[in-house]
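ERR on first pass: missing label on line 2. Operator R.T. fixed the label and resubmitted. Corrected input:
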Amino acid sequence: MSTIKSEQTRDRVLDAANALMLDRGYHGVGMAAVASAAGVTRQTLYDQFGSKAGLLRAMVTRSEEVAGLPRLLERARTETDGLAMLRAMLDAVAAVEPQLYPISRLVHAARLEDPVAAELWAWRMGSRLAGMRGVMARLAADGLLAPGVSVGEAADVAWALTSPQQYEFLVITQGWDVQLYRAHLERTITARLLRVA
Amino acid sequence: MSTIKSEQTRDRVLDAANALMLDRGYHGVGMAAVASAAGVTRQTLYDQFGSKAGLLRAMVTRSEEVAGLPRLLERARTETDGLAMLRAMLDAVAAVEPQLYPISRLVHAARLEDPVAAELWAWRMGSRLAGMRGVMARLAADGLLAPGVSVGEAADVAWALTSPQQYEFLVITQGWDVQLYRAHLERTITARLLRVA
DNA sequence: GAAGCGCTTTACACTCTGTAAACTAAGCTA
DNA sequence: TAGCTTAGTTTACAGAGTGTAAAGCGCTTC
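pass 2 clean. output:
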């Protein structure tokens, strides 16, 4: 039962942490810096989040809610056609990645040191893989997978292709437009995994 | 002019740091832990490497020497045929990635906090991109690029596909065999970027 | 034998995470 | 109105980590 005031504080802290860690990374920002940027004491952070890892966990869950990822994935799952499912999945990735990528990159980097980050990463990527597997199974049922390509292989390939890192390489580092990135995903998956009509 | 003894110490330190950071990541291992694992004092590390980032830089350069990456890339560059160049490049990636990946992942993670790591990462990935661009330019000259695919786009795509992260996703996380990974790279690049014969 | 080198010992300054205890101010409830 | 709970503050402490400094010790080399 959190009051209105505590939720405001929570949001201010999460915003401050997001802004600071965007520039300097997870280990590059101390709890004191976050606290002072949020206009709050360091102890308040420990009272609210328990630890720095707890703060990271709160950042992740909030960013996923804001991006609306569950809703978009649900929409993809309810498509009837395999191809439509794939396209809805790629639309979801392209729509959500710009918002999710900054924190996704934090978690990926911190996962080597922090068990909480490792767990967050494994969970997020695992559910993505499961979603992609569902799409590929449907495509296989529709007879659209290229000969010699199993559902498992197709899921692995498409999952790796739609990872935040590919987004980083093409959109962030190389400056691709998100629409071009979206088209590239469909083109690559089609050419590599699907039966040409 | 370093003596035999100092080089032995250097190697012992680098081995110890590699082993420890493989498990616990860059920020998860202190200089004291590295020193004691190498049977050496913490001060020796600062005398030899200047800082923790200096130690990381030494780890990177040694691992590249050991893997023989420059030699393999040179071999790829001296191929006459565009397709042979591409295959040599992919051979090099598949041969070298298993050794290079552990430290590559350290650098990638630490790059957000540490400017030295950021510089190492930018340099390594930049030279890979340049190499890939050379291959794609040759393929374009041979008339082998698919219609509508520019050299720049092809280089970006192939570069992102051959990144350490794709290796991590498929070989480390999903347990693919390296040979399968190698074949997947060629198949994907062929299907996505090359003109079908 | 003197100089230089590799390394050790000890010590210090600073930063960061995490814990603890006591206090204040506000709101809710009996 | 009195009392309890909640959010947040202040201050303090323990432990670990990075980086710097200075003095000393043993071995090789000229």
